[in-house]
User: What shape does this take?
Amino acid sequence: MTNLLTQTIDTTNRPDHDGNFGAYGGSYVPEALQRVMDEVAAAYEEAAADPSFKEELYDLHKHYTGRPSPVFHAKNLSRILGGAQIYLKREDLNHTGAHKINHCLGEVLLAKRMGKKKVIAETGAGQHGVALATAAALMGLECDIYMGEVDVMKEAPNVARMKILGAKVVVVKSGTRTLKDAVDEAFKAYLADPITQIYCIGSVVGPHPFPAMVRDFQSVVGVEARGQMIEMTGRLPDNVVACVGGGSNAMGIFSGFLDDASVNLYGVEPAGLGLDTNQHAASITKGKPGILHGFKTLLIQDDAGNPLPVYSIASGLDYPGVGPQHCQLHDIKRVSYMTATDREAVEAFYALSRLEGIIPALESSHAVAYAVKLAPQLPSDATILVNLSGRGDKDIDFVMDNYPLVEYEPKIDSPSAYEDFLSHIQQKKR
Ligand SMILES: *Cc1c(COP(=O)(O)O)cnc(C)c1O
Assistant: This one.
């Protein structure tokens, strides 16, 4: 118990004092905001070292979120692919349906500890907004959520959830009216009043200390999964796969395995309509060093260094930058960054739904899509652990409207079963 408690917040692999992860990260904000960031950093350092803070967070994980989330052996999917065994870390089963509640509970606990009255944040798919509104409702804080107008229209059920939970949804109508613009507006609001409110960022991005802090809060995923895989299979997984938007679910699960040289780590970026189009959000694969939202990152940018509009079928992945620790892990080649297209994600979405009875979020479907590619190249005793970051209830209408499945029964043991299955997914638009 004591052991698990201390491990609930894993604070190893720290950035340097200024928050640099190698050539990335740091803090590039106006002086007034820098003072506030220093305050947050100091408060977090103190909290992370306080056993009562960890105990409170652990208690919420266990009794509120439902942790530990299970690991599930996806035998049917593994069999139809005819290669490695695929395991799923079921973050989709958390209260609110995704991994984001892990860091929201930590951030709101910290906000309370710092005496803040209100938490503010951006949201893309609405998952971070819902998770933060949930934590704020639980702990009695006000909550303002900034959301691009495009996402507000696409993610109506999550908008309703936030409102029901008592949050104010601020509709952002600037720029492309998606995630990046929502972050811009939320930062502006934070600068206007950094005393009574605190920014609870939705991923391992932003100025120091957010990337390290959010990563620490998500590390519970990797710590749990490492123990669960050893318990289920008698050894570490050979491969760990996670989708990368800002990179929090990936950093969470990778944290458990960074020091295990035998474990291959794969981050999967959204290739959208293709890497050779400008309709993707593969920041590591296609980006160049640049500064966005107060930190140095690999950025999809124009020649003048301005972020370019990005796109993914998964609203939670369409961000032009990425967490600085991912950039470092890419530089030192500890993690391989791959991509999956919209189409591949939808195929994986259906595969998991039909073969395992699990409807994954379109974000998580990108990770499943890469596991689907990797598995057939490996022997049947190899293992792939996929972080199933969230559930797909929010995506079902969109998928049914755009990629309806022609009725058919999968013939799981025929040699071309998987290809046959894929050929039954139609594509209406785009
Ligand atoms: C937000 C979200 C993501 C992307 O965010 P990361 O910080 O990259 O993890 C992935 N999956 C789900 C289900 C999400 O809601």
User: Anything to note?
Assistant: The chain has a mean pLDDT of 94. Residues 71-97+220-422 form a domain with the Rossmann fold fold (CATH 3.40.50.1100). The CA atoms of residues 386 and 422 lie 21 Å apart.
